[in-house]
Amino acid sequence: MQQAQPAPAAPQPPQPLIPTDIFDAQSQRFYALSAIFMLQFSLSLSMLVPSLPSFSGLMGNRGGPDISTEERRVWAHNVVDSEKHLLGQHTVKLSPISTAHLNPAHLPFCLSAPHNEVLVPVLLNNSHPSSVAYSISALGDKSPSKTFTLHSKELTKIEQRWRDYFHDASLTKPGRVDSDPYDDEYENDDYNLAKNDQASKKKGGIGRIMGSSEPASKKLPLSPLARRFYSTTLESTQSIMHISVTRPGVVRLVDVKASDNSGFRISGSSEVLVVACPTARFEVPKGLPAPKAKECAGAEKELAIVAEGVAPLKLTWHREIDGRRETFVAEGIEGNPDATNLPLSQNITIPVALSLSSLGRYRYGIDSLLDGAGNYFEPSMRPVGSAEHIARSVDVIGRSSATFKNCGLASPVDLRKGADATLALSLSKGDRIDAVKSVTVQYVPPIGFKASPYTKEYRPKSPTDAELPIVVRQPGTYTIMSVDGYECSGDVMSPEVCKVVEQPQPTADVSFETLHECSGDVGVKASLVLHGTPPYTIFYTESKNREHAREQQKRITSAREEIVFQPESSGTYTYTFTHVSDKFYSKVPLTGNGLSIKKIVHPLASADFVRPSPSRGQASTQMNSCSGKTVDFSVDLRGSAPWNLKLQVTGPSGSEIIEKVGLTDSRSRLSVDIPEDVDAEGGMFQIDLVSVVDTTRCERTLNVPGIPVNVQRLRPEVKFYSSDGQRRVTILEGQTASLPLRLTGQAPWSLTYRRTGEERTLSTTLRNPNDHLNVQKEGEYELIDIHDANCPGMVVPMERTYNVDWVPRPTVQFSGSAGLIAKNDSIVRSAVCEGTEDHAEIMLTGRAPFQIQYAYSTDSDRRPETITLSSVQTSARLQLRTSLGGHHRYQLLAVGDVHYPLKAGQPLQGNIVVKGQYLEQTVSTRPTAFFRSPSRLSYCVGNKLSARDAHGDGGIVVLNGQAPFHLTVAIKNFANNHVERRTIEVKEHSWKVDFPDYALKTIGPTLVTIESMKDSSPCPEADPTNLLRSVWIDVAETAAVVPLDRKQDYCVGEPISLQLEGTPPWTVHYSFNGKVREATSSFSKFSRVAVHEGTFKVLTIAHQRNMCQTQLENLEMTVHPIPSAKVSHGNAVEDNIREGDQASISFELLGTPPFTFTYQRTELMTSEKRGKPLQVLETHTVSGVTSNTYTISSSQEGTWTVTFIADKFCRYPTNPPDSTIESA
Question: Would the CA dihedral through 1104, 1107, 1108, 1109 be positive or negative?
């Protein structure tokens, strides 16, 4: 019997695609396009999968997000979770004959620590087992086998363990006893079988399944053969399970039972061999030292590889020296011959010799081990012990060395007697990680030297030292015996022997010989024979009479030398040789006789001119004569007084011999007559020394340069020059005046002058007879003295002065009409109102055009502004600034004219600015009045127009000027077009609109305008054009709210829409499940979506910024939950039944009865239909169900699901699918 469906909910009134209270027009256009796209996508999706609810039903016919009752933006399709309302499915399958195949890929298996477990796969077909029985027979043991049985729980745990250890995305999912074997997670696996085949051949096609110590979060490796097996896509009826084996032996599959106790047919091979896993490790042979991490070059070491496994074994290992790899393979390794026919594990040792001949890093590593049962070992697959068991690394380092530097048997080191010598050992690092630690040196003394031989160890201060100094004090032979490094013993390099030779101290043999000439001793000659190593330095002292001895020295490069001592003055001289130095010793005292001589010496007479010093650029040998008949000069005499000196005077026309006798002073002043022909006209003559005789009566001819004498008879002169006789010039201040001069004589000239009025004289050097005197100051300049290169001169009396004048600087000042002079010398100008034109006159002196520079500042901005004004007349007009009120100050800074212009970027020239350089003026500000903010003021009907704090800055009038103020305000009501004017007096600089006697009686806008104002100053009001002179007042009615839908019951996700009445913005207070919330809306439509079931109440509504609030009653709605339907309690259940049996399918309905729901049966999923829509075989709709459960029976294959559910109030999805309606 069919039963009608419950009546659908009342139709919704038409609504905009996008809620207008959420998004502006631009956002609405974006969301409208988005909604059209989503609706088209929904229609396409409905055509592909008929069982899914329509997208428009989920969206609730809305195009954008809504606001929830929790004041958050939500999408309607997110509010109603589609996965929570139609849950579960029931699949019925007809099962064929089941088979089980043990290890279908013939994989090898072995046991290893720490787990000692292998998981052997069993390929199942057509069913899942509830129990598996298998037996294990021990290897080499004839005792009976043991049988084990695994049930569903044990099988499930084994499968989970297999997944934890091995499974990744590239493997086909093996079957499980308790779940669907056709999980999409394991579909579309891609594995390159050809690549696996290659890897399988390379590694023998074997691998292990268990036995790693890695955590389950890291997948264990599979051999290529095992990976190929697990990556192969299974047929739709196939699955894989595993049995756990924890002991070696032969495993046989005994029995497999299904859940209905039906048996599996066991096919293929029925047994698997499980042995201990092969392993290989490095060990050190007994009785031999283990190789260290660092070994020295040339060391011989030995290792052994211990391989464990079922013989015959195949071992692969490698050696790598500094990146050069070499691989070694040993095949057919047999152990105990008696165990060859038994699959038992054996330990076999393979020796490995380490030849460490070259430097570098040696790496030895085990690559793989293959046993006779086909099991494969790689160190990366199964760690064995520590890292040293599978790989060894040895750094072969070079040996350090030592040798003598700059010393050998052929090149010995010299040693001074009583001193030290330093021998240098050159150290060489054999490797970057090794260095010389110590060097052992043996000493052997020379024959006849009293010393004992010894052996000593020396250590460098730092391993990085390249040289080791050794300090020795004894001669002999030093030999390097051994070198030790920090890591290795070192090598002794050649030369390893160093010879030290002691050098003797230097000595000198001295003999003296007297030098005699012209009846007297004139000096001493010393002959020296030196012993030692050249070069030598001989030290001696010289003393005269009883004077203090002076030490002197002489460098000598040969073994013989002669030194001549011939003083220039008579006296008793003593010469003593004191010390000698050679290459090795310094200042060794001389001992013995014959080292000193004392002698009275009378040197030969001699004489020479006392040369005049250079003067005025002339040569030092020349003398000058400017006046007189004679020339004076000085001579130095040597020998014994008295002296007789012969002179020769040579002029242009002849020469004359003159003799000066009885000279007693060693420096005598002499005078000779100037030749007559030179004295008359001037010119040159020369004085020469001919011979000298002292008290010994030995005359000695002299050969010294003579002295030329320049005789000058005309005196140099100087005067100021002027072509017109007016010696005066006018220049600008700061410029340089070049005063012309005329000079006679020989350059250069030295001029002395002064400025009139100053006592200090000045001097300068002139080099041109028409030179100039450069001066900068104004005034009269006077010439004082002149001197040329040879002689003093004279100043021409009538032409000794010159006058320098300056061009006057310009001046500037304010004229007397500019204002009154104050006590501080400022000019105070009469005050004016803001905007009144005004100027001040300026007076100028100088030569036009002028540039006037002045500074302008105000009280509000004290940083002065520098301005330049130009004028072509001696008066100028300074335009005063009156556009802004306040105290203004003008300061004249500088003035420039044609001669003294003002230059941009340069400091002021200091041009004269006379009194009256400051001008001050007060500009009175025009009063203004304006509203501080354009914000509209909100009032309700019946309120008084009084000030409110809630308005903030709204309605505040700002007044500028001098208080008190008088305002005229107009109030215009646009509802009745009535205007009322009020005049008020304000004593402050701000006033808030406040007319407590004015009532707002009508709804609509009211405008308050400032018509005029006046302050206490004489200045009129400023132009109000650009000022905010008006403010709007909104008079609103009482707010109200009306529901758009005349119903009390809503569903979760369905919008609750209200119409707001009044003036925006509105403030709405509502509660949902007792929690009160506040919302603000600028649009008349107010909508909220409930995300949970509960009660929605509207409490109050207000508008005009929470004014004119209205309390609401009886505006309440109930939100109901969305009903749900579950198949088989919401689980995915699968029934395997035989033909003729029936499966029971249960439906659970949640919500408020009566229910209406739709269910359907689809075809089974197969591998061929993956990714394609399944065919719907039948669809039924049942209505009028009053209980929460509903059950049907079926013997047909397929999957049952629910596609639609509705209760008394709500439905999901919104539109039910077309189907046959059945009555409950």
Answer: positive
* 1187 bridge partner residues: none
Where is mean pLDDT largest: 31-40, 181-190, 470-479, 691-700?
470-479
678: helix, coil or strand? helix
At residue 229, the 3 state secondary structure works out as helix
Using alpha carbons, select from 315, 375, 369 the residue that is nearest to residue 343.
Answer: 375
Cis ω for the linkage preceding 14 (within 30 of 0): no
Query: What's the mean pLDDT in 308-321?
Result: 88
d(CA 266, CA 466): 81
List, as one string, the DSSP characters of 4-45. PPPPPPPPPPP--SS-TTT--HHHHHHHHHHHHHHHHHHHHH
Q: Which amino acid is at 805?
A: D
Candidates 91, 100, 128; CA nearest to 259 is: 128
**Selection from 783, 737, 778 nearest residue 761 by Cα:** 783
d(CA 896, CA 810): 6
Strands (E), 419-570: 421-428, 436-444, 454-458, 467-472, 476-485, 491-492, 497-503, 507-516, 521-531, 536-544, 550-556, 560-565
Q: Residues 6 or more apart from 457 whose CB is under 8 A from it?
A: 438, 439, 440, 441
Query: Other C-beta atoms within 10 Å of 147: how many?
Result: 12
Structure tokens at 422: 């330093």
Handedness of CA 896, 897, 899, 903 (dihedral sign): positive
User: What does the pLDDT look like over 684-734, one tens digit per residue?
Assistant: 899 999 999 988 788 888 888 999 988 887 889 999 998 888 899 999 988
Cα pseudo-dihedral 1021, 1022, 1024, 1028, rounded to 10: -100
The Cα 959–Cα 713 span in angstroms is 101
3-class DSSP state of 111: strand
Both ends of the chain: CA-CA distance in Å?
7
Element spanning 760, H or E: none
Q: What number of residues does the chain have?
A: 1224
pLDDT (tens digit per residue) in 1165-1175? 887 888 888 89
For residues 207-218, give the mean pLDDT: 40
Q: What is the pTM of this model?
A: 0.37
CA distance readout (Å), 910 to 652, 848, 849, 891, 896 = 67, 18, 18, 15, 10
Q: What is the 8-class DSSP label of residue 434?
A: B
Question: Are 538 and 507 in contact, with CB atoms under 8 Å apart?
Answer: no
Specify which residues 1149 forms β-bridges with: 1125
Per DSSP bridges, beta strands 728-731 and 801-806 are parallel
Residue 419: Cβ within 10 Å count: 11
Q: Is 1088 in a helix, a strand, or coil?
A: strand
